[in-house]
Amino acid sequence: MSVDQRSHVSTRLQVHNCVVQPLLTDLYQITMAYAYWKSEKTSDTAVFDLFFRQNPFQGEFTIFGGLEECLRFLENFNYSDSDIEYLKTALPPTIEQSFFAYLKELTAKDVKLYAIDEGSVVFPRVPLIRVEGPLIVVQLLETTLLTLVNFSSLMATNAARYRMAAGDNVSLLEFGLRRAQGPDGGLSASKYAYIGGFDGTSNLLAGKMFNIPVKGTHAHAYITSFSNPSELKTKTLINLNNGKEQDLIDLTLSWRTTLSTLLNISESQASDGELAALVSFAIAFPEGFIALIDTYDVNKWHFLGPKQLPVISSFGSGILNFCAVALALNDLGYKAIGVRIDSGDLAYLSNKSRETFVKIAKEFNIPWFANLTIIASNDINEETIWSLNDQKHSIDCFGIGTHLVTCQRQPALGCVYKLVEVNGMPRIKLSQDGSKITMPGKKNAFRLYGGDGFALIDLLQKSVENLPVAKTKLLCRHPFDQKKRAFVVPSEIQPLYKLYWENGHIMQRLPDLKEIREHVKESLRTIRPDIKRNLNPTPYKVSVSDDLYEFMHELWMQNTPIGELS
Asked: One Pfam family this chain carries (predicted)?
């Protein structure tokens, strides 16, 4: 990496979360460090793998997030004087003082970090990050690296699933700050929702920090704060056609009377307070007018089914008042943006809104009116979107909060950080639960592609093995089931790891959020549709080379105690 590239990286990393520091860890990391130190293991080296065991949300893929924040952490890894003073009070008084002097000098300059590119589609058991370096230092990194990767990857995956449900032609906005798990949870959710495919956020601080587009409308409180048009202090707006001020209230009331007949909605159903609020908002934002139209749910009966059963819908005041204001704005040379619906039957109301806009567009020869944006919110989750798709909704944009930012369907990913090598010697963790057995030693990972451009299988090899070659027959084995194996002839092979950190420096150019967001899209395009589908997705295969399989099972047998019957 050039000096200029390193300078660019350092500048970007100034936006460092001050909460992410060496003390953002578990106590046992420090107690282990002291025990290692007492055992004179300061010269020992180790390799750790960071990976997860199961994909979230009952799916079969995950999006890797949080790498840049891990690198920020390494760049700033150093115990401050106040950290050391605190540790002296938190640890037992028997701790030797020279240990604290040792801690004070620790940095990550002797650490190497290999990782898959951020924003890549990843799968269980394939290490996302491989950390090499002094045993004590790389042990101390564990908790912080896990907290940086776990939620980031979970959020990015959740957002990507919402994007797939909504499709490419519907906008997605993240509205979850008020429901997030605290301020940092809210910021992280905004950031990784954008990476996963959302188009914008309501979170202003996230917009400032991460250059994410910010979007928003207004709340029901704004509508209910008005009672009558007569209370408006400002009633006029400049007519862009002639440059003169014109009374927007009078123009809107005139249009409301006209539309009442056209739409068969009585003016008595329309709230004057709501009208006043919408006119006020239109005067404030004449070129960006979006209205919340469900504050006053004036019930209107319609009849469905062979028995003509009555069904109540809320379609009256809001749509009538909005259209009146939008047409008044049109007379003055402005184009309204659209409406937001925050309650009720979203499929029905969106379709009725679209029908209304089309009808008005044709009646008054205003073509753009038919394409007004319809935004839907109201506690939407992934299943809601799939259901709305089945109902043939007319929604252009979803505003999603609680279910997105809290990942209610699955609140944790479950990444782990496991020791796989010490001083060049492999280490394995055994368990009666096969899913918790680790794959020992330093490994490389490759993605094998078929001729159709889709990923076939991921392959793990010992780091000392020869690199796999495309268009040659490769034996791929299940890590733990000797009967499951297959020959694969890949048309293309992609090495998954890059060296991201060495000698105290970031070794790769770090992409911005837009680039990571595009990489998510590109990576997802290489995964077969049946693996990504919402219902009963096909599991993606992760394999090991024959050499790694034999190595693992030999080590497994060596480390498994032999029982004795008597």
From this structure: NAPRTase_N
Task: Identify the residue whose tokens are 């259901």.
Answer: 387
Residue 544 parent element (H or E): strand 542-544
Asked if 412 and 154 touch (Cβ cutoff 8 Å), the reply is: yes
Nearest to 36 by CA among 99, 91, 110: 99
β-bridge partners, 397: 171, 375
On the question of pLDDT at 10 being above 70, the answer is no
Quick check: 314 pLDDT over 50?
no
DSSP state, residue 110: T
Q: Order of strands across the sheet with 397-400? A: 200-201, 171-174, 397-400, 373-376, 338-341, 290-292
Lowest pLDDT segment from 114-128, 307-321, 445-459: 307-321
Q: Residue 339 in contact with residue 322, Cβ under 8 Å? A: yes
d(CA 44, CA 63): 33
Range scoring the smallest mean pLDDT among 144-148, 189-193, 303-307: 303-307
φ, ψ dihedrals at 416, nearest 5°: -130, 165
- The SS3 assignment for 275 reads helix
pLDDT of residue 260: 95
What's phi and psi for 434, nearest 5 deg? Answer: -55, -30
Tally of helices (H runs) and strands (E runs) in the chain: 19, 25
- Of the chain, the percentage scoring pLDDT greater than 70 comes to 93
CA-CA distances (angstroms) from residue 389 to 162, 170, 392, 485? Answer: 12, 11, 5, 40
pLDDT in tens, 377-418: 989 999 999 999 999 999 999 999 999 999 999 999 999 999
For residue 90, give every residue at least 6 positions away whose Cβ sits within 8 Å of its Cβ, in sequence order, or none: 27, 30
C-alpha–C-alpha distance, residues 133 and 315, integer Å: 64
The answer to whether 79 touches 165, Cβ cutoff 8 Å, is no
Locus of tokens 């991921």: 458
Segment holding 144, helix H or strand E:
helix 142-166
Q: Where are the alpha helices (DSSP H) in 16-93?
A: 27-38, 67-75, 81-90
d(CA 503, CA 473): 38
Give Cβ neighbours of residue 481 (< 8 Å, ≥ 6 apart).
none
The two three-digit tokens of residue 21, written as one number: 């520091």
Q: What is the pLDDT of residues 425-473, one digit of tens each?
A: 999 887 766 677 889 999 999 999 999 999 999 999 999 999 999 999 9
pTM of the model: 0.92
Residue pair 112/501 in contact (Cβ under 8 Å)? The answer is: yes
Side chain identity at 69, as an amino acid letter? Answer: E
**Mean confidence (pLDDT) of the chain:** 93
17: nearest Cα among 151, 111, 128: 151
